[in-house]
Amino acid sequence: MNTPLKDTEIIHEAVGVFQGPDELQAAMDDLQEHGFMRQEISILASDKVVEEKLGHIYRRVEEAEDDAAAPRTVFVSNETLGEAEAALVGVPFYLGAMAATGAVVASGGTLLTVLLAAGAAGGAGAAIGALLARRVGQHHADFIQEQLDHGGLLLWVHLRSAEKAELAKEILERHSGRDIHFHDVKL
After folding, report:
1. What is the pLDDT of residues 71-99, one digit of tens each?
2. Are 64 and 101 part of one and the same domain?
3. CA–CA separation, 107 vs 96, rounded Å?
4. What is the phi/psi pair of residue 159, to 5°?
């Protein structure tokens, strides 16, 4: 039997602000280790996204804490960023080297020619990938700085039960979260 959907759903959340990405990441890791799912944890989106969606930016993080309309995103950890940067360098290196190897072998080139072509094409691919990786890293650093300039990194945690609420509060406090409180959001 199907039950009708409610016109509005109320979501209970814990809210906290962190002064740095390391504290935020530690809190997120701790939350996940204690049963919170990744999709239950979010942070404030970039100023660009906020302005596109709402027509303004938040001057202070406190303005966004309890705003149900505040656009959210997932936090990208340093580990994930490092993996992405490595892929951006490694994949173009591999593709360039393999393409050059295939072309030289198909044309009947010598082993030395194959090695030189693979090294040159792979190096060129890696250089392009390194430039892309640098841009990705800079974009991430700019995003973090943008958030800190507004007063900190805002974290929301969806709460499934009262027990989860107290656990979330303990975890956020343990990792130097400030302005920790609960709110309800109508969807």
Report:
1. 998 877 677 767 878 888 888 888 888 88
2. no
3. 17
4. -110, 125
In three-state secondary structure terms, 176 is coil
- Residue 67 falls within a domain, yes or no? yes
pLDDT digits (tens, 9 = 90+) for 129-141: 888 888 887 888 8
Q: Domain check: are 31 and 67 in the same one?
A: yes
Q: Which residues of 21-56 are buried (b: 16+ CB within 10 A; e: fewer)?
A: bebbbbbbebbeeeebeeebbbbbbbbeebeeeeee
In the chain, which residue ranges form alpha helices assigned H by DSSP? 21-33, 47-54, 61-64, 78-106, 111-149, 162-174
Q: Which two tokens stand for residue 129?
A: 């990938």
Give the domain range for residue 177: 12-77+150-186
Instruction: Count the neighbouring beta carbons within 10 Å of the beta carbon of residue 134.
Output: 13
**What pLDDT is stored for residue 76 in this prediction?**
74
Tokens of 184: 């309800």
- Give the separation between CA 34 and CA 20, rounded to whole angstroms: 22
pTM, rounded to two decimals: 0.72
* Whether residue 97 sits in one domain with residue 73: no
Q: In terms of domains, do 102 and 17 share one?
A: no
Domain identity same for 84 and 118:
yes
Contact present, 186 and 68 (Cβ < 8 Å): yes
Helix (H) or strand (E) holding 94: helix 78-106
For residues 161 and 125, membership in a common domain is answered with no
